[in-house]
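## tool: complex_structure
## caller: assistant
## args:
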Amino acid sequence: MKLVCIGLNHETAPVEVREKFALSEQGLDRETKELLEADDIGEGVVLSTCNRTEYYAVINGNGDVKTLEEWICAQRKFVGNLEGLFYYHEARGAAEHLCRVASGMNSMVLGETEIFGQVKKAYQRSLEQGATKIVLNKLFQRAFAVGKKVRTQTGIQEGATSVAGASVELAEKVFGRLNGSTVMVIGAGEMSRQTAQALQSRGASSVLVTNRSFDRAVDLAEEIGGTAVPFDGWEDELEHVDVVIAATGAPHFVVKPRHIEAVRRKRKFRPLIMVDIAVPRDIDPKVGEIEEVYLYDIDTLQEMADQARKRREKQLLLCEDIIREEIDKARLPAVND
Amino acid sequence: MEIGWLVIATLLASAGGVFGWHAIRKGSSSRAAFFWMLGAFVAQLMALEWRGSLRGQCPLNDVGEICLFLAWSMTLFYLVTGTTYRLSLLGTFTVPLVVVLQVTALVPGAFVESPVRVETVDAWREFHAAFSVLSYGALALSAVAGFMFLVLNHRLKSHHFKGGLVYGMPSVHRLVTAMGRITMVGWIVLTVGVISGMKMEGGAMNAHLLVATVTWVLYAVLLGIYFVRGLPGRQLAWAVLVLFIVSLLVFAKL
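## result:
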């Protein structure tokens, strides 16, 4: 009885190859069922996300990980070059790899949390199909416990690693909770959408969208559940706004000190966060000299994200220690035997 | 043992400070500081009870007693606001002040060794002294929140995010709200102190009462501007900090 893991991810395969191995939800169920019908396979879990496809299996008899690789390629009808495409892990190596994946240590964005739910869902589907028994049940339960421990006892998920996340972090540093806050988005591009949605996910209740082309403002407002504001009327709305995100393609400053000065008294000098993610910049840097305005441009946000990434990388050794320790303690079948 | 309570209070507050700063360095807010200060508060009460029994009146007559009472009132307001606004980190900034006051009280000579026990007590005088010092506990805490705001504001405006300080501190909004509310509490308590002072035996306006009244008026103006017109956080922070320090220095000169 051998525990094996075989897979490919964003580090080993380009997107045009990854998409050939990616599986839909229905495809996952079918694949799991067929995996169990293959020779020598006793248990199996298939994990498929946008960045990885992995097979965890218990092989009985004479089969090995190469047999499984051939089976996968036949299933996907893949005939390209296999060199360096797949990574393989056996026994303890497979267990440690699963723990790294569940902890977000193997993700494109180090420490991201979504993968934990995706692993859990993959395991749940296999469990419901009766594809897991003592080895994989114990292994996955342990991996979930390790994943939680790594996230709570290390700084692997601390700090924002994206521009949108850094904007949210700064807004929370000024306002605490964002519940009930109002966000104004100037410019209806992709970065505006991402940042506005990140703020919404943390409680921002109202989003105003303005753009030179009003139709695009309406489209984005509809998409994110906000309200479109005509471009010649955005200044009037500043009175009620807590966070401004500026991301237009304008070659000159759109927001100037006079715009803020005009509403300071009406706002009772409440703090105002201004995030300028446009290049060239949309907000005159002099706006940041106004006492209650906290102005951040794309370089500051990028630097924050880089710092957070470095802090997370420094946590990796600590995470590895936890994984080793937990696998040692676990006495998992086909791992510690 | 009597002076021992003050030593214990100082040790407990110092421990709270050490744990608090350690938490800041790690980038988290210190919940432990609250419990250390709670212990310090109990020890302060015991020390105040000792001085009160000796004098037969509110212990606010020598340097040691005033420092001890001020440290006690700051700790009291910290415990109350710490729970309400969850400004646990405020304790870390408050603790050094509390420790300094208590160490000053421990300096030989700060306490009159055998104070004369009073025969009769003027209740209004006692009220005036107690409420005035109590209000200064709140106003000191508001000044601490102001100081914290200035530190955080400078870091956020100049984009200095390295180190745990920025991440361990309460938000700008929370600090501004705390400054406004704690100053209001201090001003209300000071109002009771000033009214009690006006009802003291003799009824004449002495220098202490005059300074207390002027301080009361200045805080009233500040609160009026803040709540009615609004005030940028930085200006409010400087105002509560400067008003507290200047009025304290004037009282010390009297």
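## assistant note: Chain B has a mean pLDDT of 85. The CA atoms of residues 204 and 222 of chain B lie 27 Å apart. Handing back to user.
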